[in-house]
Amino acid sequence: ATSCDTVVNVIVQPLRESLNSLGFEVYPLKIGWYNAVVSQAHQLQYSADTLALVVLSTPSMFEKVFLPFLRTGCCKGVRDPVDQCVAQTIKSCVSECLPDQSVDITFDYEMLPNRKPKFLAQTAAHVAGAARYYQPSDIQDPPWGNKKMFGVCIHPRLGGWFAIRALLVLKSVEVGEALQQVAPPNCVSSRDARIELLERFNLCWRDWTYRDIIPTEERYSPQQREYFITPPDQRGELLRQWG
Ligand code: GSH
């Protein structure tokens, strides 16, 4: 196993280092792990052994990359500054660190013509071992009965203070048996805590307390909270206030 782990690390390490320094995290997975758990409609059209990477933003991305991006002023009149900034950053790291690879990059906000997301970000993070996806179906006899509840990913060190940003597929890299799947840490383990998590996420999403369901190493700064809590169409005004 180690020889191919090494191959993965050799390929991935430069990209990981450069994205880590900008407040992102990178986790490898095989396409087969993802396809094994999603429906027919969400299958990704690559062979099962194809190497993919899921990219998360951590709290420091905001200060390290997004505020400097705003200061360049090139986001004036841009509709989606966060998405643009993240996309630009990831693309430039990929072309710098994987210059000889053919990489398909899909961002979390990209939709198919039928308006379904191009990939299920929480599932990708889960199968990569990055953050555990807690779903209502994990809970027996839930107190909310048949009410539709959404699942949410919790990261072992960041709780809910992160966002899944992209899936990178290294089209010509097949990793076979050697990349071993690791389960995401089960950091919200009791039935009661899982119920609490899903209730916070679904019923009082806007207070963000679900993000603190476990103690975390980092969380969003007051400025970052203010930015993300402001509806996107009012952020322009906020930026003018910030000067
Ligand atoms: N599309 C807008 C933009 O690009 O500026 C809005 C982007 C946005 O606010 N995205 C949210 C986000 O990044 C949803 S993923 N939130 C951080 C978080 O929820 O942790």
What does this structure look like?
The chain has 243 residues and is α+β, with helices and mostly antiparallel strands. It is built from eight helices and six strands; from the N terminus they run αβαβααβαβββααα. Strands 1-2-6-3 form a four-stranded antiparallel β-sheet, with helices on both faces. α1 (2-20) packs across α4 (81-97). The radius of gyration is 19 Å and the shape is globular. The mean pLDDT is 94. The structure holds glutathione. Glutathione is lined by residues 80-83, 163, 228, 232. Residues 80-83, 163, 228, 232 line the site of glutathione (GSH).
Q: How many separate structural domains?
A: 1
Largest sheet: 4 strands, antiparallel
Strand order of the largest sheet: 1-2-6-3
Structural class: alpha+beta
CA-CA gap between termini: 53 Å
Portion in strands? 15-25%
Query: Globular, elongated, flat, extended or rod-shaped: what is the shape?
Result: globular
Total of DSSP H or I helical runs spanning 4+ residues:
8
Radius of gyration: 19 Å
Helix content: 25-40%
The number of distinct β-strands equals: 6
Bound molecules: glutathione
Order of helices and strands: HEHEHHEHEEEHHH
